[in-house]
Sequence to fold (213 residues):
Amino acid sequence: MSKNPENISAWTRFIKSMTKVHDIATEEDIMTDHDYDGIKELDNVLPPWWLYGFYITIVISMGYYFFALRGDYNQYDELRADVAQAKVELDAYKVANPDLFSVTNLEVYTDAENLAKGKELFAAKTCTACHLVDLGGGIGPNLTDNKWILGGGMDDIFNTISKGGRPGKGMIAWESSLSKQERQQLSSYIISMIGTSPAVPKAPQGDITWDGK
Ligand code: HEC
Fold:
């Protein structure tokens, strides 16, 4: 490789101009009179590479201030626009997937096959974790008695499973993860279990009385 003294000196010059390192031979010129037990302090200038970075951040901050904070843009509007857009998309999704969201013409199944599917879903979808395998109740209420917090009957039970319980109670909405048919199977299974005798029945909760008929 042939050395090019021009290039090297240009590079060295550049580095020197970016650091403004003071020549050690003339150090005395910038020596301050601070002396701490023999440790002395040089009055070096700020290195230009650092200073330029600082200037750049100032320029960027002014740009940010005028374009981001003073302009039309603000985060609240962006959030509102996004939420509005999401609502439009959700509504379109609901229209396109009536099986997931429709709550009309609910069917109460009484045949063995659908009830077996309901029972299977009740375990598979972790309903058993809160309502127990025999529906006697635990974290969630007993589903075999005739007292209901959110309402008995196909419409109300289906609605609870679809939309969830009261906020913070732990009963989530299942309408986006279970089809209408699956929710009907679950509701029908629950209805078919009313009046059975769980091993450790939780005390009745709720003011609404419905005994499954
Ligand atoms: C994390 C615990 C939990 C899970 C899992 C859970 N539930 Fe619940 N469930 C509750 C609680 C708590 C309530 C009471 C809600 C309230 O008080 O608003 C409830 C209420 C209900 C009710 C209404 C009872 C009433 O008295 O009105 C039904 C029906 C129901 N759940 C069915 C289900 C089904 C079906 C599943 C599974 C797909 C399920 N739950 C999963 C905790 C749970």
In short: The pocket of heme C is lined by residues 125-127, 129-131, 139-141, 143, 148-151, 157, 160-161, 165-166, 169-171, 174, 186, 190, 206 (CB under 6 Å).
